[in-house]
Design brief:
Elements lengths: L1 H32 L9 H11 L1 H21 L6 E15 L1 H5 L7 E15 L3 H72 L5 H36 L6
Antiparallel strand pairs: 1-2
Helix pairs in contact: 1-5, 2-5, 3-5, 5-6
Protein name: TolC family protein
Pfam families: OEP
Keywords: Cell outer membrane, Membrane, Signal, Transmembrane, Transmembrane beta strand, Transport
Length: 246
């Protein structure tokens, strides 16, 4: 009886070892055939697309454009102190006589004519604040424009780091998802064998229950890894701004 039990254990151990080796071969070969990194867009391409679609980077572009315009406005602010006035009138006007124009004090005659009149005038005022604060205002506008540019550069660096991390997380999650699926399939095969062995009395209830629990745990791990894979995929798609097909 003990001899028979020893033979059964030896056979079970050999089967498990050979089955484990074939599973490893299957997983390794399967990962080569199902390498998601070979079907994903290139990392540089994803980074470029993400930069073009990033609302944050577009905000910094608009902010820089605004402050760049403010520099021009501050440089031209002195024009606000120059006023040009023009007026036009048409009707009957009283005019001085030639004698009055010549300076004859005895001539008091005015004559009326129907005519058009144009008047043009210019005035300049230079407040001291405009003179002394002009340079400072221009420097402030330039500083704001530079700050917006540097903020965009930093945001681009952060975006690149995020995409690299999410890209690698997606590849890792896909590989673990594939491996967990392979493990579930292997335990399903073992479960079928366990059903036959239990029906034939080759294994007891304890061993049969243990194999069923291992299958349930493998299925639970598979579902968890499936969720991680989908989260990694959606996170990368959300950052890049496109739907990734592979």
């Amino acid at each position: 009886m003990m001899k028979r039990f020893g033979v059964i254990c030896a056979i079970f151990l050999i089967v498990n070892i050979s089955f484990g080796q074939s599973l490893n071969d299957f997983v390794n070969k399967g990962l080569e055939d199902n390498d998601i990194s070979q079907r994903l867009p290139q990392l540089d391409t994803l980074i470029t697309i993400a930069k073009n679609n990033s609302p944050r980077l577009k905000f910094f572009d608009s902010d820089f454009e605004y402050w760049d315009g403010q520099i021009t406005l501050e440089k031209r602010a002195w024009l606000n102190n120059i006023n040009l006035d023009a007026a036009y009138g048409y009707g009957i006007f009283d005019n001085l006589s030639d004698q009055q124009i010549a300076g004859d004090p005895g001539s008091q005659t005015l004559f009326s004519t129907e005519q058009s009149r144009y008047t043009v005038g210019a005035s300049i005022k230079l407040p001291l604040s405009s003179i002394f604060n002009r340079g400072r205002k221009i420097k402030n506008a330039k500083a704001e424009a530079d700050k917006s540019k540097y903020q965009k550069d930093f945001a681009e660096w952060e975006l690149e780091q995020l995409i690299v991390r999410q890209y690698n997380d997606l590849i890792k999650a896909h590989r673990l998802f594939f491996i967990s699926n392979s493990i579930v399939e292997s335990y399903k095969v073992q479960a079928v064998r366990a059903d036959k062995d239990f029906a034939n009395g080759a294994i007891n209830v304890t061993e049969y229950t243990r194999l069923q629990q291992m299958l349930n745990q493998a299925i639970s791990a598979f579902e968890s890894q499936r969720s991680e894979f989908l989260i990694a995929l959606k996170s990368l798609e959300g950052t890049v701004g496109i739907k990734i097909e592979f």
